[in-house]
Design a protein that fits this description.
The complex is a heterodimer of chains A (about 325) and B (about 425). With about 325 residues, chain A is mostly helical. Helix content of chain A is about 80%, strand content about 0%. Chain B is mainly alpha-helical and about 425 residues long. Classes of the chains: A mainly alpha (about 325), B mainly alpha (about 425). The interface between A and B is large, with 68 and 71 residues.
Chain lengths: ~325, ~425
């Protein structure tokens, strides 16, 4: 029962919140995917790998909680959609969570013993799991643009891993590799940063090509399947190309902060574009008014605290890392 | 084995594993916060070493809790979509609030605590570990609200097959949630305290150095264990009165009062014909829990007296040996307690309203087997590696280094070792 003196929370708040949380997660953990993937290639010896871990370290836990928050809101505010989403994409979700567990375990255990074999083994596992994680999120986005399957109309395993989702999977993987490379260029020093910037420059064109292919193929109804709200999705995802165009200039001018802003907006826009496609589905599956009122009030109170804690963290650990930086992972 | 049985086994293994690791997290957090408070006030390096050593063990343990928690939340959606269909409006809210109010903040603060060593102002860094403790307790509160609802659904009405929330306060003050929380929190403190005492006693058994460090830790552990074991036992029995009313089947099978026949007859009157008793083997975990509770209580009090009496304890090898094994008992006990609580709820998922067999997702046996194999395989491996890493770290003692925060320049003891492991 909503009383008149209570704040009425518009329904669009929930779809926006979910979109922002998911985009936030994929932007933030996205650079960790990228750094993880490139880790064994870019970090040539133990001191360099130490720098890479130090670069991601302070943010790692705080990035991942965005996924937990997304899942929590999904479960609380749109329980029906959560059920449909998880059972509809069952094999993909299992793959994704498996990769997530493996990557996290790698991060957690890697530096707990000094032995070289122990550390190298986990480094490989982190890289492979990060790759699998990026690929499965890309596959997920590639399936989500076609809408959330309801009930028994769920696509089979083959369809989930079909050509179009696979195209999206590969494109998203290249995009976060670029994102990770830019992050390393910004956060580390000397030769490692130079090499990362070099990798980033090489990845700009493939990333742009990938995004255009995803949108182009997605717009052909018979090939990509039908995009939910095709024009809106296409427009938002294509807007992600603009920051990519600016990126080579930023890298050439060694403005790595600006470069990271570019990749952040690209990843963010891609996810928000996909989100815009499924927003109507979210609105149709909202929980009862009383529950939303309750959850909404709590969210409005907690959100500023959450944001403040995150901003404090980013501020406290800004700047480039060196061998004497704070470390744990 | 059917998809239902396999889905139940999968959830039980995930939740059981989660509960084991989370109990230690909840138990150690306040102890570490108190240690760091003493360090912040006195500046005595021994308190710094204690905070960092037990803090590192706390952290190694924490990782499994996060991952199993995440898998558990996903399983609710994957294998048990009946619960969100029937009670999404009420069961989802506390879960969502837990992730936002508690877990999100807990992990953020923990990350800042890990990386903030010697970097943040002393009292800001101290505040972080207290915030981690507070949010961990908040997390336990919300989870017990959600679980309490499954045990004793209050705070709403069923309209056209869906549970609608009408009274949030009733949901929050549910006796099956709060009562269990009062039993659970001292039990987790006992887990953390006996863990500290056990690891310390183990160091004395093996005759390693660091006398001062481990005698203090031993004293801390036992002085906390003695009162909290009594509190845990007391709060356990306090639940009996209303459990007999709310869940006679559980009481009948676990404690024999009322008799199973009476409990079954009462249930038939309430819910119509059917079989309403949980399995009769429930008596085994119930007995283990109760008698182990007494054993831990007696030994904690005895240990506390002996450790206070000019440290006699460390001169009695048999007691030290006992204590180093006793630290495993709280884990068995919390697991038994959890089995009694959740298996005793059967055949219901939401007591009296939704049967477990009606809540399982319609996914085929094949996909349940796949997810079972992948998740359980990964989680058990993860847990095994985690325990091995913890054991190794605990056996090396506080001077083994291990990286936590910025490399330490102020304290000679850590510096060489930290650099050595880089």
């Amino acid at each position: 029962m909503i009383r008149s003196e209570e704040i009425i929370i518009p329904h669009a708040f929930w779809s926006t919140l979910l979109g922002v949380l998911l985009a936030g997660y994929l932007v933030l953990d996205g650079f960790a995917f990228g750094v993880g993937m490139l880790g064994i290639r870019l970090g040539r010896d133990e001191p360099e790998r130490r720098l890479l871990l130090n670069a991601v370290g302070p943010y790692f836990l705080n990035n991942e909680v965005w996924l937990v928050a997304t899942a929590g809101i999904l479960f609380g505010a749109v329980p029906d959609l959560e059920g449909a989403f998880l059972s509809g994409f069952y094999p993909l979700v299992v793959l994704l969570i498996g990769a997530l567990i493996t990557r996290d375990a790698g991060m957690w255990f890697r530096s707990r013993r000094p032995a070289t074999r122990w550390r190298t083994g986990w480094d490989w596992l982190i890289s492979m799991a990060s790759l699998a994680l990026a690929l499965s999120w890309g596959l997920m986005l590639g399936n989500l643009v076609r809408g959330v399957p309801a009930g028994r109309a769920a696509p089979g395993g083959v369809e989930l891993f079909g050509p179009y989702p696979l195209l999206c999977g590969v494109s998203y993987t290249v995009l976060v590799a670029l994102h990770g490379a830019v992050f390393i260029a910004l956060r580390t020093e000397s030769e490692l940063a130079l090499r990362a910037a070099q990798v980033a420059r090489q990845l700009v064109a493939p990333t742009a090509a990938g995004l255009m292919a995803c949108v182009g193929v997605g717009l052909i109804p018979t090939v990509g399947g039908v995009l939910a709200r095709p024009m809106l999705v296409a427009a938002v995802v294509l807007a992600a190309l603009a920051p990519l165009a600016l990126l080579p200039l930023a890298l050439a001018a060694r403005r790595h902060g600006l470069a990271l802003c570019c990749t952040v907006s690209s990843v963010g826009l891609v996810v928000l574009g996909v989100g815009a496609g499924i927003a109507p589905t979210v609105l149709n599956a909202l929980a009862a008014a009383g529950t939303l009122q309750l959850l909404g009030s709590a969210v409005l109170v907690v959100l500023p605290v959450m944001a403040a804690a995150q901003i404090w963290l980013w501020w406290a650990f800004r700047g480039r890392v060196g061998p004497s930086s704070a470390m744990y992972f | 084995m059917t998809a239902l049985e396999l889905a139940r086994l999968q959830f039980a293994l995930t939740a059981g594993l989660h509960f084991l690791f989370v109990s230690l997290t909840l138990g150690l957090a306040p102890l570490i916060a108190v240690m760091q408070t003493r360090y912040a006030i006195t500046g005595d390096p021994i308190h710094r070493h204690m905070t960092r050593f037990w803090g590192q063990l706390y952290l190694i343990n924490y990782g499994v809790g996060i991952i199993t928690g995440l898998v558990m939340e996903l399983q609710l959606g994957l294998n048990w979509n009946g619960i969100s269909r029937f009670a999404g409006n009420v069961f989802g809210a506390p879960i969502a609030l837990e992730t936002l109010i508690a877990f999100f903040l807990e992990s953020t603060f923990l990350g800042m605590w890990i990386f903030g060593w010697d970097r943040l102002p002393r009292y800001a860094h101290l505040a972080l570990i207290w915030l981690v403790t507070l949010t961990a307790y908040a997390s336990a509160f919300w989870i017990m609200v959600a679980n309490g609802f499954l045990q004793h659904p209050v705070g709403g009405v069923v309209r056209s097959g869906v549970f609608q929330l009408t009274d949030f306060a009733a949901l929050l003050t549910n006796r099956e949630g709060l009562g269990a929380l009062q039993h659970l929190l001292p039990a987790t403190l006992l887990t953390g305290a006996l863990f500290m005492a056990g690891v310390s006693a183990w160091q004395f058994v093996r005759g390693t150095g660091d006398r001062e460090f481990f005698i203090r830790s031993l004293r801390w552990g036992l002085l906390v264990a003695a009162p909290v074991s009594a509190l845990a036992i007391n709060r356990g029995f306090e639940q009996i009165d209303y459990l007999t009313i709310d869940q006679p089947g559980k009481m009948a099978q676990a404690f024999g009062d009322p008799s199973p026949a009476v409990a079954q007859a009462m249930a038939v009157v309430r819910y119509g014909p059917g079989q309403y008793l949980p399995p009769s083997w429930l008596k085994i975990p119930a007995d283990i829990m109760i008698y182990s509770g007494y054993v831990m209580g007696v030994l904690s009090v005895l240990g506390a007296i002996l450790v206070l009496a000019r440290g006699w304890l460390i001169r009695i090898p048999i007691l030290l040996r006992t204590l180093s094994w006793l630290m495993l008992l709280p884990f068995l006990v919390v697991l038994c307690g959890w089995v009694v609580r959740e298996e005793g709820r059967q055949p219901w998922l939401v007591y009296g309203l939704l049967r477990t067999s009606d809540a399982v997702s319609p996914a085929g046996l094949g996909s349940v087997i796949t997810s079972f194999t992948i998740f359980i395989g990964l989680l058990l491996t993860l847990a095994a590696v985690d325990v091995a890493v913890m054991r190794r770290y605990a056996s090396r003692g506080p001077h083994a280094g291990g990286i936590l925060g910025a490399p330490d320049r102020n304290v000679a003891i850590d510096t060489d070792r930290t650099l050595a492991v880089l």
